[in-house]
Design brief:
Elements (H helix, E strand, L loop, with lengths): L12 H15 L13 E2 L3 E3 L9 E3 L3 E2 L9 H21 L2 H12 L10 H16 L3 H7 L4 H4 L5 H10 L4 H12 L13 H13 L8 E3 L15 H4 L5 H8 L16 H11 L16 E6 L15 E4 L6 H8 L24 E3 L2 E3 L17
Helix pairs in contact: 3-4, 7-8
Length: 384
Amino acid sequence: VVTVWENTGGLNSTYHAVSERMDSIVRQQPIGNIFRTSETRFGHEATVGDKHIGSHHIWDHFWTPVDRKFQNNQPDAERGRAYTNYDVLNRAFNTMRMDVLNQVSDLIKNDMLYRGQEHERAVKGFHEGYKQWLDAHDKHAFVWQQVHNLGLVNFKNSVIGTLVEDLCKDVPIEDAVRMFEAKVAPQNYKRSKSLITGKMVDEALAKLSELGMEHAIERRVAVFQDVSVNDVLFVNNAGRMKMKDGLKAKILAGHERAIPTRESKNNITIDNFLDVIVPNATDIRVLFQNKHLGNLMTLTAPAVPSDVPLFQWANSFGWSYKDGNADSIRERVKRAGGNVDAKLRISLSWFNGDDLDLHSISPEGHIFFGNREQILDVDMNAGM
């Protein structure tokens, strides 16, 4: 903050005392607005006495030229805009929080916001400005310095700014993001990732620690010795002895199961298979084909044994599907001969005999059922 009364060392002692006092009084006042004027200078350097009475005395005056950066043809309008910008930015700095800005930055970084990358620069800029405001000795003066920084001023009323503001008001993150996406996304947009931020992870870890479950989430691939023989529908003798409780179950059984006689190799119902065949079989062999790959899953067990249950069911086993997800559309496309390993794949899935079509406008042209260009590799239900 500077005033016109400072650095007046060229004045004599009488006026120097006045200048210092005026400088002190002005500095104690709050800033009311920016300085703008249509004038190019204030006052005149000097005037000469009336020549008609023979006076040649020269009077010096307080005067100054006006720097061009303070000149404006419509100073009142300029000051009005500045005051509005100050009010908006000051309220933004006083209502937003650093933890929420970090949370939104995490959402963008982890690609959890639709078109979030478009707002990354704005969030980063406001984050830096907010940090400077927190560190400023005179926060009001800092805000006045930034009234022409439209990146900061416009942030609060931008679509990403309203997301930050909603989260600062403790709107649930799912609701806040849903409102954000409704403003920037098509009606049929579906987010591909769950909303998981660093703050949410920290809160989850704290909750796990509170429940004594820190080690319960550490997982590994389950082995035969983890699974009790009493928890499976069928196991042959070779597998039984490798499983938990296998020897005990064999001793308690005391006899070999009878092998049911069957005269037909025709198909049977699944109920008949489970109720009649499985309980009495000594060995079962399964024909496993490539088309069944999508049905595979990996059974997981706790890496560190714990008495604290992690799941709602009675055992500690979890599971994950092949490739870490249950992408049924991917498997359907693969079974139909489509390429599922491309850098970009667009698939349309439905569950009836209707013939729905995808159209893509790309550098290769209009790709659709009538112009495949070796890019559209699966076209189902045509002619149905």
